Amino acid sequence: MDYKYLFGPVPSRRLGISLGIDLIPHKTCSYNCIYCECGKTTDLTIERKEYVPLKDVLSELDDLLKTHPKLDFITYSGSGEPTLHTGIKEITSYLRKNYPEYKIALLTNGSLFWDEKVRNDCMEIDVVVPSLDSASEKSFKKIDRPHSTLSINKINEGIVKFSQKFPGEIWLEIFIVPGINDTDSEIEKINQEIKKINPEKVQLNTLDRPGIVSWIRSADDEELKQIASKINHHNVEIPKKPAERITSEAYSDDVSGLILHTIQRRPCTLEDIAKISGLHPNEINKYLGILVEDDLICESSGERGIFYSAKNK
Asked: Which residues have a Cβ under 8 Å from the Cβ of 23 and sit 6 or more positions away?
């Protein structure tokens, strides 16, 4: 079966060997983050509905999971905000009943937890990884560029309400954008929210590859370490770089080779590679990070976005 809504298993920087479930059309999201490696949001929305057919998602899960793959997590992720899909609770319950051996994770921007229905829909998930990029409205709007109805207080209060009843683990992700949310005053405000949420861990992230805007840069290792020292939490992690994950059982030389073969013909965007190769954009993204870190490909900006080309070795 050719899977439309599943991708991987892929080597994940946070979740090990992860099978992805993509419930949302490409770039349908409540944010238009400046750091997004999937490209600009084309449908900026907070409308919840059945964006992709629920029965087809369950059918694909049955087909793949009957082979009993070795997985660390089955993960709601993709190129949009997963909680926009109204079937997330039903899928989770189906996995719990039929494939209880697998843990379930959710990668979310956390923007819809102000909605009690969304909070209830996510209660059976094992690990929820919400974003907390800022605790001030000015920085929030500059980094995440949200739907017009969303405010930082509304979102962060929703994450706090979710954390108070959620029986699983919360791994709070903070995406560091140097010059915006790395100042002492910003970190202090973020620390206040961390105290309210009381997550199991805090993960610092930064840009692997070019984002939507040209001026954004990555925080280097030393900057991340300094920020980590200012976070008031007992468990602060800086996830490994892509190249350090090549030994993962989920890493496929066939996938890596297919991507390299594709861009050796001509420079391609992520969308180009997806159309030519038939691979899911999120799966491609994981391997692009590894190939860039391993110095096998390079990136350049063009009219249609970021182009990837193979380096001559």
From this structure: 5, 51, 52, 57, 76, 78, 80, 82, 84, 85, 87, 88, 91
